[in-house]
Structures are given as C-alpha cells and as structure tokens.
Amino acid sequence: MSYQLELRHFSYFLAVAEELHFRKAADRLFISQPGLSRQIKQMEEIIGAKLFVRDKRNVALTAAGIFLKKELEYIFNHIDFTVKQARLVDQGSTGEVRIGFLGSAIQTVIPDILVQANREYPNIQFSLEEMSNYMQVEAIQKDQLDLGFVRLSRVPDGLKMKTVHTDSFSLVLPKEHHLSLKTFKNIAQVAEENFILFSSDYSSLYYNKIMSICEDKGFTPKVTHKSVHAQTIFKLVESGLGVAIVPTSLQYGFNLAVKFLEIPKIPQKAELSVIYKKDNRNPALSKIKAIIDV
C-alpha cells in the first residue's frame, strides 16, 4: 500500500521531537500511543529516513530528525504568521512587525522608530519583546521575529546587521557613594569594589568590552553578581552589593537610588545593531527598514 505525507504526520513528528517521549506526545495529541508509533513509522517509510532512535527507555532524534525538526519549526512558524498577517490585512492593517530588543534599545532607537512609523504607516502593528542577543538571533532564523536590536560582533549567514546607535559607558554607583562627577577620574578608583555585570551569556561582546575597560586600567574586576536585566543590576547596586558598568543610555527610565558617572577617556563604545533575515518576505518590514535606513 502506498502512502503520502500529510500535515498530520508533521504535527505528530513535532510532538514526539519536542517531548522525546511517545506516551507524553500521544497524550498531548489525544491519540493512542500505538497509533502515534504507527504514524511515525509510516512517515519514516515515506521519507526513506530514520527520524528517531528509540529503545525501551529513551527516544532521541537522528541527524535527519534534527534537521527535519528545525525546518518544520520554521515552516509552521511562518504559516502561523502568514495566517495572522492575512487576518490583519483583512481588517485594514498593513500587517505586523515583530521586534526583539535589549533593554537599552527601548531607551534609544526604538521609540523614534515607532513614532515615525506611526506617522508614516499608521496601519502597521508592532509586537515587542525584550530578549537576549542569542534568543533574538534564533527567533529571527526561525521566522519568529522580523527585527532584532542586539550587541553582537557578527551574525550567522543569512542575517544582516547594521550599527544604529553608539553609546558611551557609565559607572553605576549607590546614590551615597563617595565618588561624584567632580571626583571621578577613571575606573581604577573602584578597583577594590565588587562588580555587578550583565552576564556573558547575555552578550559576550559586551561583557568582554567591560572587562577590557577595567583591564586597561590595570585590574581585573571581582564579579560577584551577574544578571541579564538592568533593573536587577541597578537594584543590587542600590542595595550596596557592588558597582556596575552599563551603556550610558540605560540611566533613563529607572527610579532607583543609584547614580551614573560617564567613564571618561576610554576607547570602548557600546554599539547597538539592528539585525534581520535577508529573505524575510514580510511586506510591512520593508517599510520599517526604510525608516531605519538598512
């Protein structure tokens, strides 16, 4: 008997690929476990490739399975987005642009972009989500985001990147710290303090720049706390647990008992870049790219 692939095969495959457990996947799909196993076996026969390695205890994806999972995630995300866009167009909207960003971007470039877009293209809708650099890259590759605002030195093939904002660095201190704008000369003055930094997982480029700011003045900072959220870092500084170095633009939008002292005469700059997928077909995105000039 000959079979052909149907949409249900892909849905069944993704459920097993995500759960890596046939019973859990079957429960999620509201079908029997033997029935799910038959469907997966049928799919493997049609494709002509083994997708799972399984024994009595474990289920794992083969190399072919890993490839198929990645591609299907992209396809299903794109289908979902296309259906949503069609609904928006039917309602009179030009569509939606999905934006990921680091916290500092909402203090600098994003508000200007949204204001101009609202003036020129009032029918475009936006969804915004604060995400780490690498989560943004992954989401753009999977067609879950249209634009990302990141601090990275490079991006994978298929993505484009352009610097859109260059910022200085500032030292963040508790409000009552003895250093002030008049007395602060260089970062070596806090060499003995504990440091609270953005995690290297958040941005290795950014983390390395901060380390180099200190190392240029002859010391390696003692890092006692790390976070991916500016609010958390500032709260820890406010509590007297250490000092921090952040892009100067992050001083806006927080109401905490901390002060920002711009670090003078250093070559390091905090560069914010926009990234997007070269072959992104979202028609609304092209209009926003024109505003950003990318």
From TrEMBL:
<dbReference type="Pfam" id="PF03466">
    <property type="entry name" value="LysR_substrate"/>
</dbReference>
<dbReference type="GO" id="GO:0003700">
    <property type="term" value="F:DNA-binding transcription factor activity"/>
</dbReference>
<dbReference type="GO" id="GO:0032993">
    <property type="term" value="C:protein-DNA complex"/>
</dbReference>
<keyword id="KW-0238">DNA-binding</keyword>
<keyword id="KW-0805">Transcription regulation</keyword>
<keyword id="KW-0804">Transcription</keyword>
<protein>
    <submittedName>
        <fullName>Transcriptional regulator, LysR family</fullName>
    </submittedName>
</protein>
<dbReference type="Pfam" id="PF00126">
    <property type="entry name" value="HTH_1"/>
</dbReference>
<feature type="domain" description="HTH lysR-type">
    <location>
        <begin position="5"/>
        <end position="62"/>
    </location>
</feature>
<dbReference type="InterPro" id="IPR005119">
    <property type="entry name" value="LysR_subst-bd"/>
</dbReference>
<comment type="similarity">
    <text>Belongs to the LysR transcriptional regulatory family.</text>
</comment>
<dbReference type="InterPro" id="IPR036390">
    <property type="entry name" value="WH_DNA-bd_sf"/>
</dbReference>
<dbReference type="InterPro" id="IPR000847">
    <property type="entry name" value="LysR_HTH_N"/>
</dbReference>
<dbReference type="GO" id="GO:0003677">
    <property type="term" value="F:DNA binding"/>
</dbReference>
<dbReference type="InterPro" id="IPR036388">
    <property type="entry name" value="WH-like_DNA-bd_sf"/>
</dbReference>
